[in-house]
Amino acid sequence: MSTVAKNIEQIKQTFPSGVRLVAVSKFHPVEVIQEAYDTGQRIFGESKVQELIAKEGALPKDIEWHFIGHLQTNKVKLIVPFISMIHSADSSKLLQEINKAAGGIGRVVPCLLQIHIAREESKFGFSFEECREYLRSGVWRQLANVRLCGVMGMATFTDDCEQIKSEFLTLRNFFDEIKKLYFSEDNSFCEISMGMSDDYPLAIEQGSTLVRIGSRIFGERVY
Questions:
Q1: What is the value of pTM for the model shown?
Q2: What is the pLDDT of residues 84-108, one digit of tens each?
Q3: What would you report as the CA-atom Rg of the chain, rounded to the nearest whole angstrom?
Q4: How far apart, in whole angstroms, are the C-alpha atoms of residue 62 and residue 65?
Q5: Residue 94: its H or E element
Q6: Which one, of 156, 2, 155, 22, lies nearest residue 85 by Cα?
Q7: Are 76 and 53 in contact (CB under 8 A)?
Q8: Distances (CA, A) of 209 to 7, 9, 142, 148, 167
Q9: In 3-state terms, what secondary structure has residue 210?
Q10: Cα separation, 35 vs 33, whole angstroms
Q11: Rounded to an integer, what distance in angstroms lies between the CA atom of residue 155 and that of residue 171?
Q12: Pairing assessment for the beta strands 191-193 and 64-67 based on DSSP bridges
């Protein structure tokens, strides 16, 4: 069994039911992604549009590609034809653009609302209040070609486990709040994407359903 296969198996053994693995394959070559695919892994996460397009063209068609990086509005139309989920819907403008591109080809694209939960300015996302305001406005209800499926957040890059746990819990509580207010009848609004290689056990504890793990599977990235 290859190292990649062993790593995936070990990680998945720690998951409770209802948690899915997004294997973060950005900056890793096609051959290594194929190895992970051969073990049965089907969800892969990429954060650069050009790299994603090249890989999508070279790998099996039943892969579920999840876009997890900051997405520029002018690149949306390039990935909308095949993307399975966009984790990083971080503004009303971006959601409008996804809706427009998806409408042009008759697709409905599943998206997660990216929320800024870290104490770091460099991370993207709605603030909690901006997201509340956006949902209150009802604008999203007009987006016939976008399906809102949950929330995504990235914790602060720190060794302080209590801080990380607190940030994840805040996102979980926010998910519960907006689920009750706006999506109580919508079974597809069920995803909380949080947790990466260093903090995913804490994210799972706080209710994550999608964890985004790269280096624990593939080793350190080759830039």
A1: 0.96
A2: 999 999 999 999 999 999 999 999 9
A3: 17
A4: 9
A5: helix 92-104
A6: 22
A7: no
A8: 19, 18, 27, 15, 16
A9: strand
A10: 5
A11: 10
A12: unpaired
